[in-house]
Every structure is written in structure tokens, then in C-alpha cells.
Amino acid sequence: MKVVCPVCNRLFEAECTPYKEIVNEVMYYFDTEMCLLGFRKEPERFITKCKNAE
Ligand SMILES: [Zn+2]
Fold first, then answer.
1. How many whole angstroms from 28 Cα to the centroid of ligand 1?
2. Which of 10, 39, 43, 51 is 20 to 30 A from 24 via CA?
3. Model pTM?
4. How far is the CA of 26 from the centre of ligand 1 (A)?
5. pLDDT in tens, the chain (54 residues)
């Protein structure tokens, strides 16, 4: 499954990453640990950004 990292907007395979986070019952995938840590600091920022992009 192809997913987009909400932090850096890079497209990658969800099966290839150990970095995942569930927020409001939605699973988010991250390509790097750095992106996951950045997301955990300010999840609202990236979730809002994601919705705006739709
Ligand atoms: Zn990323």
C-alpha cells in the first residue's frame, strides 16, 4: 500500500516502515523516525495540513 508521509509528503510503501502512529482512530505512516518524532511533537499541525491537501 502506497502512503504519503504527512510530515515530508514523500510517497512510500506502508509495509516498509516500522514508524506508525494512530491518532483519532486514523493510522498515519512515516518514512523515517525523524518524521514520526516531529509528528508526535505537534500532531495537530500535520493532521490539519493533510486535510487541507485533499
Ligand atoms: Zn517523512
1. 11
2. 10
3. 0.82
4. 17
5. 999 999 999 999 999 999 999 998 999 999 999 999 999 999 988 886 445 555
